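Exam prep: given the inputs below (a chain plus 2-aminohexanedioic acid), describe the expected output before reading on.
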Amino acid sequence: MSHPTYHNFIAGEWVPAAGGKTLLNLNPADHSDVIGAFPASGAADVDSAVAAAKKAFATWRLVPAPKRAEILLRTGALLQERKEKYAREMTREMGKVLAETRGDVQEAIDEAFYVAGEGRRLYGVTTPSELQNKFAMSVRMPVGVVGLITPWNFPMAIPSWKLFPALVAGNTCVIKPAEDTPLSTYNLVETLMDSGLPPGVVNIVSGDGPGAGAPLVEHAQVRAISFTGSSEVGSLIAQRAAATFKQVSLEMGGKNAMIVLDDANLDLALDGALWGAFGTTGQRCTATSRILLQRGIAAEFTERFVARARKLRVGNGLDENVEVGPQINRQQIETSTRYVEIAQREGAKLVCGGRALTDEPYAKGTFFAPTVFAGITPQMRIAREEVFGPVVSLLAFDTFEEAIAIANSIDYGLSTALYTRDVNRAFTAMRDLEAGITYINAPTIGAEVHLPFGGVKQTGNGHREGLGALEFFTTWKAVYVDYSDKLQRAQIDNAE
Ligand code: UN1
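Solution:
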């Protein structure tokens, strides 16, 4: 079967990888459906892209920020027109159901409109000088050429979280999309170009991590790296980027807990748990992967939750009746399978699913049955390590304090949720849960673009996307203007 060949996008031109190699982008619901061949880029391609970005920076940084923002405004409007087409293409390359890929494109639209408003803000600070007739202010400057490395689970939303704030601030970008889902990044960049973005301001280098990501991280001309992906890769990136003193923003794994107290609205908690655990086939860094149940409701919750998990319709995400799409690739199926084995060896009770689906109509894709483990203890690996698949663990607890301690007893700290009607406990949880995000009476997934997104502990290195993104993509400059017409020595001439 024939399929299109895509190239890298460098200095506004489509160019094949210097080495001529390609990687196939497959539909995870049907691996015989090839979306296209994408470049398997290497260091030479990264060099060209960085050179183009560096050249474009000389002029892009001087474009007034409100003008840069207008391009994003147009991008948001064009994405609205293209939403359905891009969502369908995203489901074909990534697998998640259409309602969710529409949401993914919508998240990029939201980000475009949110960040476009920053073009007329990008606030700095003025402050009095300690000297007379001297003016002091701090202004935000672009960082320069930035490298963006994005994951496959939010193929358009996450690139938009990084590209748009980087651009409004005056940076130029080289983006390396995940090799499983590059098309959605192409669609996003195509829309930016159609909105009037000058050539060279955004460049795409496709390929895998070792081939294309590593040279970007190590490149001397790249001033910052923004990465979303696993904690394992994030740690490697931080170490390698340290050699050239790059700023690095890392958004990584999670093992997100939902706590359900005895007084919770159980119907609501069940809806939330099902969506949090199996939405996006569990492949969100915010996915609910631990459900902590207070003893009084644990049995009823478990029974009702498992009954509903069993009934979830798994299949091709383009079918509007399907609720759970495939996993992205064979490697993820292997990870889910391995964790099922680990959990069973540890004594966890498999109550639903637990295996790859290989019979028709699943034979050509990479599907995994929605999986529930009960009887989990907090020390088990299944309760501590990220699976990134449709696998959820149920743990029982007695007191609220115990639940908070269990929720906090892991190395990650991205998202958390509490279901209760007790306002005192809600506020205590907001204060005490060690996580970048806490939901009350809502599941662990579903962050909005204009709030800070990111986590603590091994989830991140202190940066935030959304509300925090401009902090990362700008650097402060302090400016002093002395209008006294004489030399004034700070700390000396004004001293007693
Ligand atoms: C991710 O899984 O990396 O909050 C991002 C959410 C989405 C973003 C998830 N808006 O679940």
